Amino acid sequence: ANTREAIWDAMHRKETYASTGPRITVRFFGGFDFSEDDTYSRQPAEAGYAKGVPMGGDLYTAPKGRAPTFLVAALKDPLSGNLDRIQIVKGWLDADGNTQEQVFDVVWAGERQPGADGKLPPVGSTVDAEQANFTNTIGSPELAAVWTDPSFDPAQKAFYYARVIEITTPRWSTYDAFRFGIELPEAAPIETQERAYTSPIWYTPDNATEGA
Predict the structure, then answer these.
(1) How is residue 137 annotated by DSSP?
(2) What confidence tens digit (pLDDT) does each residue in 101-150 have?
(3) Would you say 197 and 56 are in contact if contact means Cβ atoms under 8 Å apart?
(4) How far is CA 83 from CA 56, 63, 73, 160, in A?
(5) How big is the CA angle at 96 (ends 94 and 98), to the nearest 5 degrees?
(6) Which element (helix H / strand E) includes 6?
(7) What global pTM score does this model have?
(8) Are strands 52-54 and 25-31 parallel, antiparallel or unpaired?
(9) What string of pLDDT tens digits covers the 212 residues of the chain?
(10) C-alpha distances in angstroms, 124 versus 11, 136, 166, 170?
(11) Nearest 5 degrees, angle CA 129-CA 135-CA 139?
């Protein structure tokens, strides 16, 4: 609900996300029972709350032989760029107690496929720097996926958060140069990819030690 009380409660339980500007809508849930069918609903939160916990929530010891699954869905800002991809970032502590992170591309627009290096090719660009404009002829207005951690260790603490990335749009300096009729500095980037980040979902096994 759009009330002071509801907003405060959401912040208190960490069920929040942020963006670099655009009003991208993001839902992110973790559990052990999500399936691809859950992405077909126009109300992914129904399955999210029924089968798992939302962003900011906690998962505990996994059922034997099962890894956590994550349901993520995003909708573009109507006044901004289409969506390029959704990533899930996993973090964990290594044997030396150092934080490690790995980024997974879980769903993306178009027919692209990861290369031999495992990296997804860029979505491309429609930015017209001279007019400080772009077109939504690439990307997707919405994306959704269910992802399972392929390197899950049930005895290891971990956290997961989602990152939603737009197609390239003009950078603020490109808009200003057009508005004031001035030349961009030669080294200034002309475009950027706005994004949104969710709060993490934490996984903690029952036998986890303190301090992780």
Answers:
(1) S
(2) 999 999 999 999 999 998 999 999 999 999 999 999 999 999 999 999 99
(3) no
(4) 23, 34, 11, 20
(5) 60
(6) helix 4-12
(7) 0.91
(8) antiparallel
(9) 899 999 999 999 999 999 999 999 999 999 999 999 999 988 999 999 999 999 999 999 999 999 999 999 999 999 999 999 999 999 998 888 899 999 999 999 999 999 999 899 999 999 999 999 999 999 999 999 999 999 999 999 999 999 999 999 999 999 999 999 999 988 999 999 999 999 999 999 986 544 44
(10) 36, 11, 11, 13
(11) 120
- Residue 77 has, within 13 A of its CA and on its CB side, a CA count of 17
| Long-range pairs for 147-151: beta carbons < 8 A, 24 or more residues apart | 147/69, 147/70, 147/72, 147/88, 147/104, 147/106, 147/107, 148/67, 148/68, 148/69, 148/70, 149/67, 149/68, 149/70, 149/90, 150/67, 151/90, 151/102
Token representation of residue 25: 């809508």
pLDDT score for 70: 98
CB 199 within 8 A of CB 16: yes
Residues present in the chain in total: 212
| Count of other CB atoms within 10 angstroms of residue 54 | 21
Measured CA to CA in angstroms, residue 76 lies from 26, 80, 140 at distances of 9, 7, 8
Cβ contact 70:198 at 8 Å: no
Q: What's the CA gap between 59 and 61, in Å, rounded? A: 7
Can you read off the two tokens belonging to residue 94?
Answer: 């290594």
Q: What sign does the CA torsion over 175, 178, 180, 183 have?
A: positive
